Amino acid sequence: MNRRLLVVALLIGLHVFIGVTLIPDLSLGLFGSVLAWGYLVLSAVLMRFGVLVRGAGSALLAWSGLAIFALLRAFVLVVASLLGWESAAIGRGSALAVIVAVAAVTLFGVLNARRTARVVERDIALRDLPPGLEGFSIVQLSDIHVGPTIKQGYIDAIVRRVNGLSPDLIVITGDLVDGGVADLADDIAPLAQLSARHGTYVVTGNHEYYSGADSWIAEFERLGMAVLLNRHVQLEHGHARMVLAGIADYSAELFRPNHRSDPVAAFAGAPDDVPRILLAHQPRSAKAALEVGCDLQLSGHTHGGQFWPWMHFVRWQQPWVAGLQRVGEMQIYISRGTGYWGPPLRFGAPSEITRIRLVRAV
Question: Which of 71, 118, 216, 329 is 20 to 30 Å apart from 160, CA to CA?
Answer without folding.
Answer: 216
